[in-house]
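re: that chain from earlier
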Amino acid sequence: MKWYIIPALLIFLHPDTFAQSKLQQFDDRVLEDLAAHRTPGQTKMWRTISNMNDYVDVGIPVVVLTAGLIKNDPDMKQNALYIASSTATTFLLNTLIKVIVKRPRPFVSNVRLKAVYEPTSYSFPSGHTSSAFSATTALARAYPKWYIIAPSMVWASAIGYSRMYLGVHYPTDVATGALLGVGTSFALGFIRPGMH
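^ sequence. v structure.
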């Protein structure tokens, strides 16, 4: 990811830019529709999936590192470092952008939007989504097999959807989080084995 993309995002995605824009209207409509069709069973499932995100993000590099140590495989150990670095860097960038942009959560900005639970941090971009896409994209780039890529992308997409379903993030928060995660994993690709 080019360094100048983040400042550009911050300029164009300032809170004032969102206010009453077509994009904001789209964001609100999507969340209102999702909330109107919630069921107890689906809500429990999407909350569980969302809650598993941090464990999966940490678990991916830990499993790769453990396998690398067992097999004494330096490439696997290097891939574990790559995946962990990608996820950690994404977390830091996400935190920084949240503090700069200061976009309120959907349920704060719009009284019609009811969330399943109410996080206190800022909304933009989605941290769960960015970290999920960062970890899974790095894993898929380290091991580019269809049986790694497909479940990885399904999992990351499910995390993004869960954040909207639960009413804690707008679609634009999720889309930007996905771009941030994917972009960071590509930007740190030089950490992969044989890329020096």
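The chain has a mean pLDDT of 89.
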